[in-house]
Amino acid sequence: MLINYVPVLIFMLVAIGLVAVIVLLSEMLGKKKHFASKDMPYECGMDPIGDARSRYTVRFYVIAMFFIVFDIEAIFLYPWAVVFKSLGWFGFVEMLVFIGIIAVGLVYVWGKGALEWE
Question: Is residue 52's pLDDT more than 70?
Fold first, then answer.
């Protein structure tokens, strides 16, 4: 029964060997010149300024959580739309209730000012 796994083992050995050869060739043949602008971190074409470990405000994380909640809502809408006709009125009402709950939550956080970015 183990004989069935020999091709997988051979494939893994060839893949690991190929990776090792490529890394070694890159190390031996690659350029090794270091200078300040090459060693500086690159961030979207802008020169890095300040400390990289600056803290984000809590508002940033709250907005991120709202984004996740509404992203999950969109994920639930897609399968519902696929089987919409077979669900009938029951499925339609259930989705209206779901969207209503999400809308009430959105109105609540909007009213509390949690979506204000200051």
Answer: no
What does the alpha-carbon distance between residue 71 and residue 99 come to, in Å, rounded to a whole number?
13
The answer to whether 101 and 68 are in contact (CB under 8 A) is: no
- Rounded to whole angstroms, the Cα distance separating 109 from 66 reads 9
pTM for the full predicted model: 0.48
Please tell me the chain's helix, strand, coil percentages from 3-state DSSP, rounded to the nearest 5.
75, 0, 25
> Following DSSP, what letter does each residue of 53-109 receive, concatenated?
TPPPPHHHHHHHHHHHHHHHHHHHHHHHHHTHHHHHHHHHHHHHHHHHHHHHHHHHH
